[in-house]
Amino acid sequence: MRVLELFAGVGGMKIAYQMAFSDDKESTFEPIEILPAAITVYNTHSISKHRAKNIIGLKIHDVDNFDMWTMSPPCQPYTKQKSSKELDLDDKRSDCFMHLLTLLRGVSKRPTYIIVENVAPFYVRNGQGRMELLKVLKDLNYNISEYIINPKDSLNIPNSRNRYYLLARLNKTFDNEILQTNLPESKLKMEYSAFVRDYLLKNVPQECEITLSTKCKRGSLFDIVDLNSTSTMCFTKNYTKYAEGTGSVLKTSDQDIAAIFENHCVRKCEGDENCCLKQVGLRYFAPKEIANLMGFPDWFDFPASTTMKEQYRMIGNSINVSVVSSLIKHLLS
Ligand SMILES: C[S@@+](CC[C@H](N)C(=O)[O-])C[C@H]1O[C@@H](n2cnc3c(N)ncnc32)[C@H](O)[C@@H]1O
């Protein structure tokens, strides 16, 4: 199998494929990724050494003759955040995805298999991006199956990451044409711990500590979990940059944190010597711990040349490989 891994990032799609077909040592992967730090991570688990490339510069011959395309295009055009306003195809960041759809129409040998991953609003909003994707795939005679899957619900993994997936193939129809919210029966038979404690590192980088000043200013906005929690919020690329809505933080002591924060509000002690938050044990999840929650294998790690900021950004942009490996298995079944 020759796989073209578009928007490759740190290589989640390749790892998911290899988890689905662990006996397959023949398949080759061509990652296309613009971010040098992501390619550096990718190269640590690849025999061939790849260079960063921009999808916009790809020509038909660059994408022709592959058996499979994997794509997780940037989600900003379909989400409402500070830097994105659900502009869909009017957002410049969707240009590369549209460029790929044009190339797909032009190749002499179409990929037999395609998998696309994106945020759930890509489907829910019924926007132009998805409409264009469906139109091209239907014109080219692909059979299609769509999913919205959360690893917390489908695999009992203690991390929420509700995502849209589209499977397309030329050779065989799918049983279900309506949107699926559960993994196919053929999913990989793997056991996952339901508890946060089983995904944690023994030695956590110093930078994961949350400073007193951050606890004072933003502590009440955090989603706080503990070792025995069975859920964490979706970790985004802005984790540690913003306190709210970017991922959970871990309580490392037995204190009643809610009561301490209440007291803190009343006393308004702002990081001074007697601040009641001084003894509160709270830390960020390490990038490797987030990777563990997202199903990455034990051997996966970030090279020392990448900064913590880059690591959070890259893992926050990546995929749940446990979910994707089951979907790839189904796609090729
Ligand atoms: C949603 S992330 C996908 C991450 C990937 N699936 C993984 O496992 O890490 C989108 C990726 O596309 C990359 N990207 C965005 N625009 C690109 C472009 N024009 N050319 C190549 N890569 C691009 C981003 O740097 C980012 O790594």
UniProtKB/TrEMBL annotation:
Top class in the EC scheme: transferase
Claim: Transferase is one of the keywords in the record: yes
Active site: 75
PANTHER family: TRNA (CYTOSINE(38)-C(5))-METHYLTRANSFERASE
GO biological process, one term: methylation
Taxon lineage: Eukaryota, Fungi, Fungi incertae sedis, Cryptomycota, Cryptomycota incertae sedis
Name recorded for this polypeptide: tRNA (cytosine(38)-C(5))-methyltransferase
An example Gene Ontology molecular-function term: methyltransferase activity
The UniProt record lists the keyword Nucleotide-binding: no
